[in-house]
User: What shape does this take?
Amino acid sequence: MSRGAEKTTRLDMGGNPEPLRLEVPSSSEYVLLARLVVSHVGQVAGFGPEEIYDLKLAVTEAATNVIRHAAVESFEIQYRALPGEVEVTVSDAGGGFEADECAPPVAGEGGFGLSVIRNLVDEMVIDSIAGGGTRLTMIRRAGASAEASNG
Assistant: This one.
């Protein structure tokens, strides 16, 4: 079997286990690109339109958080499509924060991004320490209700 045929077979099975990496300039003009990529990855994983919309919104919130808070020139988004599942990891080399000390948002002051993400995905893991950058991993499964599993 040729290499091209092997890739086609893997995609037909619902995705490629190797992540797609995208380095994104830390500017709001590039958030649309991140959304377009996750939309395609969701299609490859067999997601429906509502699930893809949730993924796009979660990626938008994660990218916007980096742009607003990380003070970096660029950051990386990794997309992984698996059968019925999408995993997205957003990493930056910014100042980080103590994830355990992340206070709930106060009305009128912003800070709702992580809460929004938590309600859009099935699993969310934040790996961040002050001075050490941040990695946010989001997992969404097709057919699963993110609100039911988080709330």
